[in-house]
Structure formats: C-alpha cells, structure tokens
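Notes, Module 5: Reading structure tokens.

Key idea: the token line is not a picture. It is a compressed description, and you learn to read it the same way you learned to read a sequence, by spotting repeated patterns. We will look at two proteins. The first is printed below with its tokens.
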Amino acid sequence: LRYRGRFTGWFKGVISRMKQRRDYNFYRCPSCKTWLRVPKGKGKVNITCRNCGERFIKKT
C-alpha cells in the first residue's frame, strides 16, 4: 500500500507534465532535482529554483 501511493503520485506528475507540454518546457534543478516549469518561446531564460535557490540558464 505504501508503494502504491508513491507510484500514483509519480504517475500523476507525469500525466500533468504531458498535458502542459504544448505551452511549457519542464527542467530539473541540477542540485535538488525538483521539476521546474518554464513558458515556451522565451529564448534563453535564467531559471531560479523555488526549492533551493539554484540559478541556471536554459533555452526554451
């Protein structure tokens, strides 16, 4: 039962990212591995992680 909850939570995140894939790019923070959502079509963007404060640059 404990594993089922972990799996369903992960699966809901995957489904959510797939639904929003047309409008947003999803990146992982290099330090804490949190998923971050960035709008598409903005060029190079300076991204700041809300969880740990790490900054990195990605192309959208």
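Here is the second protein, with the sequence above and the tokens below, as before.
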Amino acid sequence: VGYIQLTDKPICYGARDKTPASFSLTLDGTLKAIKLRHISGSVHCSGKSINFWGCSPTDASYIMTIITNKLNKPIAPIGLLSTNSYPSNLIPNYGGPIASEIVIPMAGGQKKVLKDEQMEIWYIE
C-alpha cells in the first residue's frame, strides 16, 4: 500500500534529558513499519561525528532510536540489540548515520493500531 503520514506536523525528540516526541495516530489499521524523516538537528557522537539516529561506535547498521506505546513498552524496532556496550538496535540497510530517513520495522512484523493511540519516539543511550 505504501506509506501514510501519521502526523500533521513535524515532531521532535531530544537526545538529552529523556525528551521523547509524542504523537497520536490519525487512523485505525495495521502498521508494518514507521518511516522517520530527519528535519533538523543531530547527535554528536564521541564529540565529533554527527548522527541523526544514534551513535554506534562499531557498526553503522545500528540505531539508538525506538518507538514505544503510551505505557513505554517498545514496539519498534524489531529488537535486535547490538552486542556492544551501547543499547542500539539493528536496522538492516537503513542508510547510515546521516540518512535523511529510516524505516523502523514493527516488533513481530506488524501491529494493529487504533486512531488516537499515542506513541513516543525516544533516543536511548
């Protein structure tokens, strides 16, 4: 079917002070993935390298961005955590640390959702 825009305006989440971005879904349906588009800002990794989705010092296939439900339970990505000391998730072929957009697959392959259901996007380090 393709992608459907879930928010009517850009949302922002922060890398500091546990500041997630909250949004409510605009329709009922089944989510297989959520596409995030970078608008502005970045995370500075190790003081110098820039990244939009989180720092992983050993592998650019990992991100530190997750999506949770209103109870703070992770629903995406699929939960393939890295083996290094950082809490990062594997997103195969996501495009690298400064990709303009990423597609995060739902845990379990898909999730039934309801209109007005609240979700949050977090940076997890």
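Summary for the second protein:
- The chain has a mean pLDDT of 81.
- The first strand starts at residue 21 and ends at 24.
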